[in-house]
Specification:
The chain is α/β, with parallel strands linked by helices. The chain is 42% helix and 13% strand. The chain folds into 3 domains: 2-201, Rossmann fold (3-Layer(aba) Sandwich); 211-297, N-(1-d-carboxylethyl)-l-norvaline Dehydrogenase, domain 2; 299-451, NAD(P)-binding Rossmann-like Domain (Rossmann fold, 3-Layer(aba) Sandwich). The chain has a 6-stranded parallel β-sheet, sandwiched between helices.
Length: 452
Amino acid sequence: MKITIVGSGYVGLVTGACFSEVGIDVTCVDIDKKKIDNLNRGIIPIYEPGLEDMISRNMKKGRLSFTTKIQDALEDSEALFISVGTPPDEDGSADLKYVLAVARDCGKYMNDYTLVVTKSTVPVGTSLKVKAAIQEELDKRKSKLEFDVASNPEFLKEGAAINDFLKPDRIVVGVETKRAEEILSRLYKPFTLNGHPVLFMDIVSAEMTKYAANSMLATKISFMNDIANLCEIVGADVNKVRKGIGSDTRIGNKFIYPGIGYGGSCFPKDVKALIRTGGEHNYDLEVLQAVESVNKKQKIVLFNKILKYFNGDLEGKTIGLWGLSFKPQTDDMREAPSLEIVKKLLEAGASVKAYDPIAMEEAKHHFGDSITYYTDQYEALIDVDCLAVLTEWPEFKFPNFNIISKLLKNPAIFDGRNIYDRTEVKEKGFNYFCIGVDTTKDMVQPLLSSAS
C-alpha cells in the first residue's frame, strides 16, 4: 500500500515514520526544499524521542522517502494525508491557506481515484472546502476522476508521539463513503490488532472531536490552576487537593497538575479556534473563554511571586531559569510560559541566565541575545539572585541542593511545576515558592540585602 503525506512538520513526520514502520510505502512531500534536502541527509527538523532512528531505519529499507514534487508522490498513491500547518490568524481563526493549497494540488495532479485525508487540525466544515478545491481543479482539467475526502485528526502528545501513534487510545476517522472507510480500515489495521478501536463517524463530528478533546484537556488545566490560586489564598495545599479529587474515577488524575499555564502548538490554538467557530455561529463558548483567560493570567503567576519576593524591584537582579520549552521531551516553545515570563523579567530590569536540555537553539529564535544561554544547569546559576523552574525536565527533579545553595545570592527557589518536596527544600535552607501553596510562612532566611 502506498500513501502520500503532504507536510513534513511534526504531525507529518511522525505519521509518515509510523506508517512506514508497519510496512506501508510512504512519500512525504514539503515545499521547503531545504527541509527536504536535510531530511534526505538524515537531518530531522524537530526533536521527538525515537523519531530520528525510525526515519533513518525506514529510509534505508526504502519504505520512506522525501520529495518536493507532489505530482511524483501521487503516482499510484491510494491516499493523500494533508498534514500542513494551520496557524491562527489574529482573530483566533485557523488559517487554511496551506490546507487548501494542498487540496488544489491534489486536484491538479491526481491521476486515479484518491482518498484525501485531512490530518491537520482544521475547523468544523473544512472538508467541504477541501472537496470544493479539489473538484474545482478537476473541472479545469475536464476530468471525471473520482475522489473521497476524510477527516483523521491526530492526538499525539509531544515527547510521546511515536508511542501514541503505534499504541493509540483510539483512532478517530470521519468518512462519507464505504470505499473511504475500507481504505482507512486497511491502513490502520496494524495499529488495532491489540484492541485499540477505530471510531468511524461523519466528517463534521470527527473535526469537532479534535477540538473538543484538546479544549477539554485545556479546561482541566485551567480549572486546576484556578483552584491552586484559591488554595494559596485560603491556606489549602493544592497538592493534597489534587490527590483528593484525582482519586475520583469520574475526574481522574491526568491534566490536574497545577503549574504556570499550558502552551504548545495545540491547546492555545485549538481553544481559540473553537471559540471562534462558536462566534461564527452566534454561540458564545463561555467556559472556553474563561479557560483562555485563566491560562493567560497563569503564565505570569511565577513572575509575580519573584517580583513580590524582591519587594517589587527587579532592577539589576539576575534570574536563573531552568527550562524554556513548554513541556519536557520537546524543543517546542510555541506559547510556552517562558516567553511571557522572560518578557516580564526583562521589562522589569532583570537579567536572565537560562538552561534547557533541548530547546536552547529554538529559544534563540525567540529571545536572541537578550538573555544568556548555558549548556550546564548549574553554570546558569552562578551569581544569580534566585532560581526559577519553568519546565519539569527529569534532570531537574533531583538536583544537588548543596551546589545550588553555594551558587545563589539569595536562598530562593521558585518552582513553577511543583516538582520539589516543600519540606525537603526548606530543610536545605531555601525559601521555596510553588503553585497552589502559601509558603511565605515557611521562609527560613530573609532576603539578603547584599544581593542587590
